[in-house]
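Note to self: user wants both folds in one dump. Writing first protein now.
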Amino acid sequence: MRTIGVGIIGWGFMGKTHAQALRSLPLFYPNAGFEVALRCVCARHLENAEAAARAAGFEHYTDDYRELLARADIDVVSICTPNDQHEEMALAAIRVGKHVYIDKPLAVTADSAARIAAAAAESPVLTRMVFNNRYLPATLRAKQLVEEGRIGEVLTFSARYLHSGSIDPDKPIGWKQQLQGGVVLDLGSHALDLLTWLVGMPRRVLCKTFTLYADRPTRDGGREQALSEDHAQMVLELENGAVGSVEASKIATGSNDELTLEVRGTNGALRWSSMDINWLYFYDNTLPEADYGGLRGFTQIECVGRYPAPGGKFLPPKNSVGWERGHLHCYYTFLDAVARGVPTEGDIADGARLQTLMEALRRSAETNAWIDFEAFEGRT
């Protein structure tokens, strides 16, 4: 059985999430055909890296990502750092032949993302964007229904990703509220990826953004005025003329971590919510009308934990899944591809195209005008 050595760069929320997924793989995917060794973790401060190594069982730790990349026993590198560090670290990892598992968004700008994608295209390494919401049973079932033609031609669609963490004017900002962040890159990237994964890329886009406060407090007692957007309302038009909306907000009062999706077509419709994560709702528009309704109506599909083998046994498939399960399956499918040496979907090329879409949306917000995405993509 092949052993895949993994190193994680960054020990914030996502670094811990990746480590949790890696540590859980042997339980959730027995007989996977590979095993994982947690070789090294890198954090900004050495004492944090040491604490991370103790907590998660890494063999080594460092505060210099270059030291991690130099290790011959590391095959895969997880990049879990702030957005503006992704390009430097991803390019360095690709240069030394490490497979790259990188959190979204790929970069801060489309140009930066394109440089990473170009390097990956010229290298034999495998890459994966952490599009974790693609890897839940309900969203995977939604993809099946679309590919089977059960939705038909798309007529309308919507996606919303809502938080409420930026309402408090006295809460010190982090990097996600500064110019390398914003809700389009942070939350919008998930909503846009999930939606375009199902319905395809748009031909043109329109966007309006809103920043709640003129300045916010910093952690050192100062004030910052160079802030990113707190709310974005986006309109996407598909090649067939269908028009839908995407909303991303961190000032959505009353929300927690709420990602919702709806797609309606000529043959059927589907809807899903991360707050109702175990179920996919599907409407079969091909069923005939009948007295008392017949069988027409939304069907609640019990996706729950029904992954294909070698998953789907622990926890039992009837047990409910949580948010972290998408991360676990995303990592499993990538490492399975690495172990078998086969291409993988949702790679850095996909991440770069998503980055270009988000930049087109930001350009639309700046100009208050529709942006032809195909023409914009050709210029970047």
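First done. Writing the second protein, which came from a different request thread.
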Amino acid sequence: MNRFNYKAKDKDGRLVTGEVEAGSLTDAARLVRSKGLYIISLQAKIDSPLNLIKRMKERITSRDVATFTRQLSTMINAGLPITEALLILRSQSKGSMQKIVAQILADVEAGESLSNSLERHPKIFSKTYMALVKSGEVGGVMDAVLGRLADNLEKQQEFAGKVKGALIYPVVIIVGMVVVSIIMMIFVIPRLLSLYADFNATLPLPTLILISISNFLIKFWWIIVVILGLAAYFLKLYDATPNGKRHIDSIKFKLPVFGDLQRQVVLTELTRTMSLMVGSGVPILETLNITSEVVSSPIVSDALKDSAKQVEKGFPIAYSFSKHPEAFPFILSQMIAVGEETGKMDDVLTKISHIFEVESDERVKGLTSAIEPIVMVVLGLGVGFLVIAVILPIYNLTSQF
């Protein structure tokens, strides 16, 4: 949500200033007018760093959306009217989520549909979410759609938690190794090696290499920081272009172990979302188009867009998917073909999503198992090199006496 400062006049012509919070300039203007004010000026507020930190803490997460959906689904299933359910949720919610629920409630009480009110918050509710709510309104099955949507969001949270939890250990180990190495090279090694200078000893090659690395880090550390910063900046710019994003995505998919995991995670979310939309009555063509806009991989997104064009021309979905082996594995095309033949596409997609999720879990475990010995070997080599570089000069000095 963004904050906007406004100057306006009331019905008596008096000047009024204030602040509103809305998703866009248009929504902010609508909120100001709803107070019976005539806008003179309306500008986005520039936040201070402290306010930015506060907004980061109050940001609405996917977990908040999942909780909101589950609670709304429960109350709709219990027979409560949508306005009464939103009124209860507004009183139970906190922070930014309470403001969003309050705006949705105000829109619904003003005669808007729930799907239209959700569309005013595109950063919080995805296109998939809004399409499903709209299909529930059209089909008169809002309770069933919200229930399935809540289940799907909770499964996404659980799956994302598994992947992140499994990767925390190796990430912490690698970061710890880098930090300890930098501290050793900058603060510890120079003091140890300064002792050898007092003896005018001839230093062996490992020690000379260690001294060179240490001196470079001490004198030119800022060069490394600048290079890394520029590399990250230009990589972000390149990733912002369609070709760059696609190229980076293809590189990710080709990485050993991690690439397969990345593909499996994307396919898990893709098939689960498609299953949810098809099972909720969303047409398959609309499902493909919407999913192509929300999927995280540009390679898979392009394949979905082309598949939608093929389906629009009358080709089967399985045939359209089989034309893109770089995005969809053969088993996905096979299972979709079974779904088309049996007319149980949502069930088939749910099963294939479960298969991809299980394979993802196995690949996460494999990645963790592969990283641990690699980290230990690298750590052992690094410690061994440090020990040789520091101890070898001492051995040479003692052998001279």
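Dump finished. Worth passing along: The domain at 157-401 is CATH 1.20.81.30 (Receptor-associated Protein).
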